[in-house]
């Protein structure tokens, strides 16, 4: 427990100092799985592409990267999550440029996942939905 | 383009945008496959189109509702004399390399008529996750018309087959999709035992009329229960081989699945891929059409067909609660071996709301349809997951 607490503290410090300490940390860069797939950061699990370090610096202070990498969302959904964290979880405010880059990384690398074992019946074969406002 | 393809596109919104031909994108001309109605066009070059489940409700599939599957470019057969069409025999294990016209086939051998189901090996591919490349068939690459012709076994007996025969394969008159006349678009076959079944026909008629141009006019093989690709269209040549046939689409990954099951997304070496033989048990709900609103308190009559490759269907069950409970449907015997079987049932709904009616067939060996995609395979074959329709009860 104490060890975990120390790590959390270290992360908080890292965040407080913004990107410098994050970028200074030397890390082994793993080989990508395939040519088209970005490498995975062995520490956080983030896809090492684009603004991933910016996301690491801003988004792993209070929670692990796994809370992100297990999640999927559209631009709107990721923005809504950020707004919720700002409102309820003490996430700091971003300048618009930083926020845009974070959202773009998240929406591009963790988009809604179409993978399912069995998709719903297609919309054109569905009956009118009594709860839909368009009916 | 308009010569090959010609009525309206009823399900135009389902056409993958990238596949709408340039000629169509540039004009308001409608897209049509002559003689076909209501098919969903998956691809215009080569032409591939499937039949929505509710249009397969007829007991015998009509010409206009039989799906279209092409690997290449169909031959132009508009002004030919069908009786003069020649069929050639060859291969290492044929006794006599001869040619026979359709007229000679008709005159020299007994005629047989069977209702035989044809299903594309890739029927159901659209549900594969990770996706499999190829035409994204949903459920409609299946049909069961009545075919008339002569038995392949009678003809082969006449021509003569050597003792070392292993495989019987076909060549058709269709052109390679590239237009290169030196390339064969597809040439597949079956082991001798399958070729010599009573129901394996060299057919010149479908439902008592000429075979539709897109389905093989004037002559085709019908070798039911296996992937439709073994039933060569526009039949020009039959070869009896002393080895497993190695024509285009026989080798590599074509019409093959992993010899042993693999996890979804696995890259499988070619030598670990095995040729598909019998298709698996499957069924369709053909009535009502998915998407109806039904009155609470009234029973709903549902019906459809079921088939099982080389086997017969033993039972069909239906469920309105996602498989929590199943009710046995009434099931008819097939018109003949390899004909689909008709089933019907009445279902009740316990309260208002959204339901799905699922159908699940079980074959004579006790194997039932899975409710999810079975054995993922790289090319997306053999998806026999249960079909289902949506019903809103009010």
Account of the 3D structure:
The complex is a heterodimer of chains A (135) and B (394). Chain A is mainly alpha-helical and 135 residues long. Chain A has one domain. Chain A contains six helices and no strands. The longest helix of chain A has 15 residues. The radius of gyration of chain A is 19 Å and the shape is globular. Chain B has three domains: 54 residues, no CATH class; 194 residues, Sulfite Oxidase, Chain A, domain 2 (Alpha-Beta Complex); 112 residues, Immunoglobulin-like, CATH 2.60.40. Chain B has four helices and 25 strands. The termini of chain B are far apart. The chains are: A mainly alpha (135), B mainly beta (394). Chains A and B meet through loops of A and β25 of B.
What is the topological layout?
The complex is a heterodimer of chains A (135) and B (394).
Chain A: H1 2-16, H2 19-24, H3 52-59, H4 66-69, H5 75-88, H6 96-109
Chain B: H1 22-25, E1 40-44, E2 47-50, E3 86-90, E4 99-101, H2 102-108, E5 111-115, E6 118-119, E7 142-143, E8 146-151, H3 152-159, E9 167-172, E10 189-191, H4 192-195, E11 201-206, E12 209-210, E13 220-222, E14 235-241, E15 256-258, E16 273-275, E17 282-287, E18 292-294, E19 300-307, E20 313-319, E21 327-328, E22 330-331, E23 341-347, E24 353-363, E25 388-393
Parallel strand pairs in B: 3-14, 18-25
Antiparallel strand pairs in B: 1-2, 3-4, 5-8, 6-7, 8-11, 9-10, 9-14, 11-12, 11-13, 15-16, 17-19, 19-23, 20-21, 20-24, 22-23, 24-25
